[in-house]
TrEMBL record:
<dbReference type="InterPro" id="IPR038063">
    <property type="entry name" value="Transpep_catalytic_dom"/>
</dbReference>
<dbReference type="Pfam" id="PF03734">
    <property type="entry name" value="YkuD"/>
</dbReference>
<feature type="signal peptide">
    <location>
        <begin position="1"/>
        <end position="19"/>
    </location>
</feature>
<dbReference type="GO" id="GO:0009252">
    <property type="term" value="P:peptidoglycan biosynthetic process"/>
</dbReference>
<keyword id="KW-0808">Transferase</keyword>
<dbReference type="GO" id="GO:0004180">
    <property type="term" value="F:carboxypeptidase activity"/>
</dbReference>
<keyword id="KW-0133">Cell shape</keyword>
<feature type="active site" description="Proton donor/acceptor">
    <location>
        <position position="144"/>
    </location>
</feature>
<comment type="similarity">
    <text>Belongs to the YkuD family.</text>
</comment>
<feature type="domain" description="L,D-TPase catalytic">
    <location>
        <begin position="50"/>
        <end position="183"/>
    </location>
</feature>
<keyword id="KW-0573">Peptidoglycan synthesis</keyword>
<dbReference type="GO" id="GO:0016740">
    <property type="term" value="F:transferase activity"/>
</dbReference>
<feature type="active site" description="Nucleophile">
    <location>
        <position position="152"/>
    </location>
</feature>
<keyword id="KW-0961">Cell wall biogenesis/degradation</keyword>
<dbReference type="GO" id="GO:0071555">
    <property type="term" value="P:cell wall organization"/>
</dbReference>
<dbReference type="GO" id="GO:0008360">
    <property type="term" value="P:regulation of cell shape"/>
</dbReference>
<keyword id="KW-0732">Signal</keyword>
Amino acid sequence: MRFLAIALWVFLLAPASHAADRVAAARKAREKQVAALFSKAGVAWPPEQLYLRAFKHERELEVWAGTRAGPLVKVRTYPFCAASGELGPKRRQGDLQVPEGFYTIDLFNPMSSYHLSMRVSYPNAADRFHQVAGVSLGGDIYVHGDCVSIGCIAIENGPIEELYLMTLDTRAKTRRDVPIHIFPRRLDAAGMAALAERLAPDAPLAAFWQSLQPAYLQFEETRRVPATSVDRKTGRYLVKPARTARR
C-alpha cells in the first residue's frame, strides 16, 4: 500500500517536474542571450513593459519593450515558420484562421506538444459580438514552437524559448498580461490599399480592418501601446492614446 501511495505521488508530480525542467533548460540555454538583446536595445531586463505585434502577410512577430511611461524600442523580430489560414479574423472553430485583433498572452504552457506555448486571449469581446448563433468560435490559439499551425502562430524552437522567457519574466515582474496585437499586415497607406484591392467587394471585412488601423498608426507615431476597447453596439474596436502610467 505504501508503495502504491509513493508511486501515485511520483506520477502526480512528474508533469510539474517535467515542465520545470523544460523551462529551466530554456533558461539555461537562452537567458544570457535574452539579457544581451535587451542590453543592446538599451532596455532594462526584465522590462517594465513588453508588447508583441504580429503581421500575418509579412509573417513576422515583433517584440517591443521599455518603461511604462516612455516610448518602446524594438528588441527583436521573429519570423513565422508556420501560420495557417488567410488574411481576415477568426470567426469559427475549425476555420484554421489566425485571429486578428487586440489580445493578451494570458497563459503559459511549458508542457505543450509544440515545445513551449503561450495562449492568445481569443475570443475577445469583438470576436464574441460577431459570433453566429450556434457556431462555436473555438479557442486554444497559441504562439508556440515546432513549425506547425492549425490557427496558431508558430516560430522556431530556439526563438520560442527566448520569447517565452521574455514574456514569462515580464509577466512575473509586472503582474500584468502582455498585450499582443495581431494585424493582417502593416496598416500604413500602402498596406490598406493592398487590402482594399484584394478584397474590395467585402465591405464588412474592410470596415474591420479600418477599425484596426488606428492602433497601428498610433503606435507607429508614439511607440506607446494604445488603449483599446470594443464598442458594445457595433463590435468595432475603439482606440485611444496610451494611458498615463501610474507609479
